[in-house]
Design a protein that fits this description.
A: Immunoglobulin-like, 2 domains, five-stranded mixed β-sheet, three-stranded antiparallel β-sheet, B: alpha+beta, YojJ-like (1, 4 domains, 30% strand
């Protein structure tokens, strides 16, 4: 039994010794002025027919107007802080709609959709921008018959 | 009275010049070719043309067609058949004489002296050949003439044909009141119709008369007869008065003219008046007859644009012009004769509106501008720049239900285009030509061109104008 007690005490000592060494670098990192803060990163962007369980369905570059709706799915990781992005929908070179989407740290998935009409046929693009308007990515697709 | 004044106000100074110039040309043709066969044939052609116009107006299809053909043919025939006569008219006269001089007939030709000399020589049985040239030049036909240039007199003619004179066997050429050449050798006639008793002198006279329009007075040495040869005819003249008459006719001098030389001037005056009236009539028929309207579509020519500025876009490339004028002028008008020119020197970068005014339209004389449709043209000027643009496929059509086009990789992904600064700043994507998706059932590759919209855009020479598209087709998740 005493043997088990010594092992237990040894493990406690080891834990007591190593835990501060792991926490410090994290604290250093957090408090260090020379390291940049985490940057908003777009890890996935796709045009799709719909979103199911936060996953884009039938990603494509050509959609029939008969499906009635098309979505722009985006996934960000990391999201450093509460912020928003824009999804700017262009039909040919004309801005059709500008959708503001909010993001929450640490990571966030979001999407916007438009309803399709006959007049919407043709080439489209969605510009995904940060809140300053910097383009993060451009998705191109067509609405067909 | 007001109508007459208003009519004259519509006649331009160019029209007066037009009528005067052509009247003068017609008068000169009359002066130069008067009394020749060419003139008669010209009158014949004019009558044919006039008849053809009448036949057209009466609706005589075959007659008008035939007359038109004959008239056209006659114009060629006259040049071929009467080439010598035309040449002699043009060669024999200086440029000043052709353009300005009024060639008066040598009324001073001593017809009576020639006639009297001929009969005196006949009485003495002295053979003689006296040539009186017509309108044709005979220098190519005769040979070995010795220049003389002496005034015509009975004594001179008698001495030339005196037996002991070295040149008495040749012919003399009389022009005006001068013996210009003696000892002239004439071509002999090869005609078999001449009487067998005709000698060499007769054959020489006939030969020249057949070849030219000259008149030859022949004195037969053996018979002591006076003969006259002109054209294919040769006949004996028994009386001096008859010979004078023949000579007067040949020289185009009537006894009236001899008696009254002013008559000749009156004739020229009448000819001038007729020329003016005729040309005025033709001018009226061309410019005022059968007022007709026509619409022509004429491309616009843009001029004087700044070399550093390009025409990016125009609302029109051509305008329709409503033109009016006489039927004859309107029918003969060619679109190339009509120009629409716009001066872009005052154009600015951006959108410009130009009104097409009459001074922008260049028309042939006698044609009038009624309207320009549309009267305004929009021109966009810009400084050309280069811009690199991403390419996007313009998918069209209906995709099969069970598949989706999930991805497309383009090569090249971007192209460089050249176009107006103002246009390119609004363009951020170059689209391909429409690519149908109807038959896409599996992954593949296609090559498509670019849709240049607006058309003023150009692909930069060092950029590809065909895009290779590798597309991925997947089954659709239901």
């Amino acid at each position: 039994m005493r043997y088990k007690l010594y092992i237990f005490l040894f493990l406690l000592l080891c834990i007591a010794f190593f835990l501060p060494s792991q926490a410090l670098p994290q604290d250093d990192t957090a408090s260090s002025p020379v390291l940049a803060p985490k940057k908003l990163t777009l890890v996935e962007a796709a045009m799709c027919e719909g979103i199911k369980e936060y996953t884009p369905q039938n990603q494509a570059i050509a959609f029939s107007v008969t499906i009635g709706k098309v979505s722009c799915f985006t996934s960000f990781d990391p999201v450093p802080e509460k912020m928003f992005i824009y999804q700017n929908w262009f039909h040919r070179d004309e801005l059709s709609t500008k959708i503001k989407l909010f993001l929450q740290p640490p990571r966030w998935r979001t999407f916007s959709s438009i309803q399709l009409r006959e007049a919407d046929k043709g080439p489209w693009r969605v510009e995904i921008t940060d809140q300053q308007g910097n383009i993060l990515h451009i998705l191109r697709f067509s609405i067909t018959d | 009275m007001n109508e007459i004044l208003s009519f004259f106000s519509t006649v331009r100074w160019q029209d007066y010049v037009d009528i005067t110039l052509n009247s003068y040309i017609l008068l000169r043709l009359y002066v130069l070719f008067r009394g020749t066969h060419v003139f008669r044939v010209l009158i014949g052609i004019a009558l044919l043309w006039f008849s053809q116009r009448i036949a057209v107006s009466l609706g005589l299809i075959l007659t008008s067609w035939a007359m038109q053909g004959i008239t056209a043919l006659a114009a060629f025939i006259i040049i071929v058949v009467f080439r010598n006569e035309i040449r002699s008219v043009l060669q024999a006269k200086t440029l000043k004489a052709i353009l300005w001089g009024f060639p008066q007939k040598p009324v001073t030709t001593p017809i009576s002296i020639i006639a009297q000399s001929a009969f005196e020589l006949a009485q003495r049985h002295c053979g003689a050949l006296i040539i009186l040239p017509g309108m044709e030049d005979i220098t190519d036909v005769v040979h070995s003439g010795i220049p003389w240039n002496g005034l015509v007199s009975k004594e001179m003619i008698a001495s030339i044909f005196w037996h002991d004179n070295p040149v008495h066997d040749g012919a003399v050429i009389i022009q005006g009141d001068q013996v210009v050449e003696v000892g002239v050798i004439l071509p002999l006639s090869h005609s078999k119709d001449l009487p067998s008793d005709y000698g060499t002198r007769h054959r020489a006279a006939a030969g020249l008369a057949e070849a030219t329009d000259a008149l030859v007075v022949l004195v037969s040495e053996e018979r002591g007869k006076v003969l006259v040869a002109k054209g294919p005819d040769m006949h004996v003249i028994n009386q001096k008065a008859a010979l004078e008459q023949v000579l007067q006719e040949h020289l185009g001098v009537t006894s009236e003219e001899l008696a009254y030389p002013r008559k000749g001037k009156v004739r020229f005056g009448i000819a001038a008046l007729v020329s003016v009236l005729f040309i005025t009539g033709v001018w009226f028929s061309f410019t005022r007859g059968l007022y007709t309207l026509i619409t022509l579509e004429i491309p616009i020519e843009y001029m004087n644009s700044d070399p550093g500025i390009e025409i990016i876009d125009t609302s029109l490339t051509a305008v329709r012009l409503d033109l009016s004028g006489s039927g004859a002028l309107i029918r003969s008008i060619q679109p190339e004769q009509v120009k629409v020119r716009l001066d872009l020197s005052k154009g600015v970068i951006g959108h410009n509106t130009f009104n097409i005014k009459p001074e922008n339209v260049s028309l042939p004389p006698g044609i009038f501008l009624k309207a320009v449709k549309p009267p305004v043209v929009e021109v966009t000027l810009d400084v050309p720049i280069r811009k690199e643009l991403p390419v996007q496929v313009d998918w069209v059509g209906k995709l099969p239900k069970h598949v989706i086009v999930s991805e497309a990789i383009l090569y090249p992904k971007t192209v460089e285009v050249i176009g107006g600064n103002r246009i390119l700043e609004k363009i951020s994507t170059m689209y391909t030509e429409k690519v149908p998706v109807d038959n896409l059932t599996s992954t593949g590759t296609i090559t498509v061109g670019l849709a240049l919209n607006p058309a003023s855009l150009k692909i930069a020479p060092d950029s590809k104008d065909r895009i290779t598209v590798k597309y991925v087709v997947r089954k659709k998740v239901q």
